[in-house]
Amino acid sequence: MIDRTAVRNNANYLRNVRPIDPEEIAEYVEGTPHPAVVRETLREEAFDLRLREREDGAFVPVDDAPVDPPGWAPEALPDAYAFAVEDLLVREYGANWHRGESGDELRERVRRLKTDYLYENDVEYDRVAALGYAIYHLPAYYATVGYVLDDLTENGLLDRTIRVLDVGAGVGGPALGLHDYLPEDAVVEYHAVEPSAATEVLDRMLEETGRNFRTTVHETTAEAFLGLEGGGEGGGSGTADGSSAADSATDEPFDLVVFGNVLSELADPVTVAEAALDALAPDGSLVAFAPADRNTATGLRRVERALVAGDSGGYPGNDAEIYSPALRLWPDAVPSDRGWSFDVAPDLAVPPFQRRLDEATARGETDEPGEFVNVDVQFAYSILRRDGKRRVDVEASAERCARMAESERHVTDRVNLLAVKLSHDLSEGDNALYRVGDGSQATDHYLVCTRETALNRDLREADYGAVVFVENGLVLWNEDEGAYNVVVDDETVVDLVAP
After folding, report:
1. How far apart are CA 292 and CA 78, in angstroms?
2. Which residue ranges make up each domain of the chain?
């Protein structure tokens, strides 16, 4: 057995002198181990030593600077990942996987997945369902995670050495997006928790990640991994002392915990998410995202609200706070509206495997093409932290603003509001319509721009999640929608407070 302490000590000495060569270190370790053994030891210790492996095999220190926003705006699923999906399909069914019985089977599984999600049915993932899931969902989920992480990197809150837990990793969309979002000099210790046959697809997709993206797949449930129940399905590999790989993995806290489109599939998502919060480092982030449809998006918001301190439905003593996007601008307030809010990013190009499956579909005269194309990037998300940090440090003032919780008393009055922009334009070509909140609302609120001027243009130009100050907005009750409309017209000023 190699003397790991000697390897670490020599690496720590050389890191400040020159690139670390495993052959050189081997000469200073008792027994002169083979350089390949030293190299593997350095890889295993790289995260703790903050070292990354270069292409030439040498190890160098990881930059201490946090990850900068990379300008994430993917136009398509990268070719390497598209080829990997097709490789799995060809292995399973042959070159004509999209035709005949195999194509029909895959299309039937995709249709079933879409129906199950729509009606909130339990979803079971066998191998065919996992392949169908990869075809239909992987591209959009790949893109989504980067847009969410932008909220953290804009404030320098993502380190280049990062320990990640991906709960319900599925077929790997979020993992691949995270891999490509991070800079090449990042070192990642990535743990995936996935109990289903999706791991067969996940393993293949993770083969496309780089040498400093160290992956471990735990074939067990989130509940078992996080210590909420005993046992598991597969349980991962064992460790030297006989404990499970999951037990070993949770010995150290995680810098980032990801729930990518999985909360709606858990029997008790609040309990699982609370346990995941307990597994976070003090300055870590829990990132959850879900499809934009009403059921999953509002379900995510219910979980968020149950976890946040101050919510009567939450756990006593839980100190999680919302980092973004649904900020509570009144520190003593709790929202109770539906919370249906989602972001929208540019569509991706149609990947070849979606196009092939769709074009091979037998259609009747009334059937439209595109049933098996899914390149819309629309998602609800939440980022929670335990250190009190928020994306923007802004609070409303009773001297200047009205609370949305009190809008009933202000109907037909003009008021000032501090609001988070929680949608893109929801209108269909008429007056621009934006969902907003301030963390106190019990009923849906919308800003309706009936006349744009130079003084209220910030409303249109503000990004999703931005905080705006609305001066002199007219409060009206919309009986048809059961919501408050705050009219923004030529008497209204809208200022961007925080982008």
Report:
1. 23
2. 4-61, 79-385, 404-498
